[in-house]
Amino acid sequence: MEPMRVTRMLQVAIVIFPNITVLDFIGPYEPLNRLPNVNVVLVSHSKGIIRAEKSLIGFEATATFDEVQEPDIVIVPGGYGVNALIRDKPILDWIRKTHEKTLYTTSVCTGSLLLAAAGILNGLEATCHWRVLPELSKFGAKPTSSRIVESGKIITAAGVSAGIDMGLKLVALLSNDTTCKLIQLVIEYDPQPPFDCGSPAAAGPELVSMARAYAEKNYPDYFIF
């Protein structure tokens, strides 16, 4: 088996906030948390329970931004709560500051809008959920519909489930391909969806239109900057 690329203990800071999309951060958390040299911390403005979208599930932020100054990995998930944070100075300042020393700064879904708003995606290709992908250009990034985009040490993932792929990508970068394959097998990540419609290109215009209508009805204030 090939040697581990990084053997020291690593701190992975996952940002959580009200109205976060659960799978956005659980997706990358699941494979990364299985590395023996990774310590995951959920970080937010203040400690305590943070409610996800529709307030059905709560997660505990165990550290504040002030308490996590030099994480090795930053993961910024998305969700319609991003809308309230797009001009939030504490979180944007924290992203900018931590990015200076991270091994990798990453996002899932609309979390890339916060990376862009923090100014670290200027002139770089990045991805996001397909519905709001064009919004990235408003903050100087170059939108691309790829599922995972690597721009140096910045990695952005497309919508929701793409966070699992990104988490496995990070596992491979931090350890080695064999370890990544092992973890992928352990979590039995073997996607076999009932329909081939998980992207706008595969879904076709009619289903895309229906999906937009669904989102506008259920999340009417989604990304109104």
From TrEMBL:
InterPro entries on file: Class_I_gatase-like (IPR029062), DJ-1/PfpI (IPR002818), INH-QAR (IPR052158)
CDD domains the UniProt entry points to: GATase1_PfpI_2
Lineage top rank: taxon: Eukaryota
Pfam families, alphabetized: DJ-1_PfpI
Domain spans labelled DJ-1/PfpI: 11-172
GO biological process terms on file: regulation of DNA-templated transcription
Protein name: DJ-1/PfpI domain-containing protein
Organism: Physcomitrium patens
Lineage: Eukaryota, Viridiplantae, Streptophyta, Embryophyta, Bryophyta
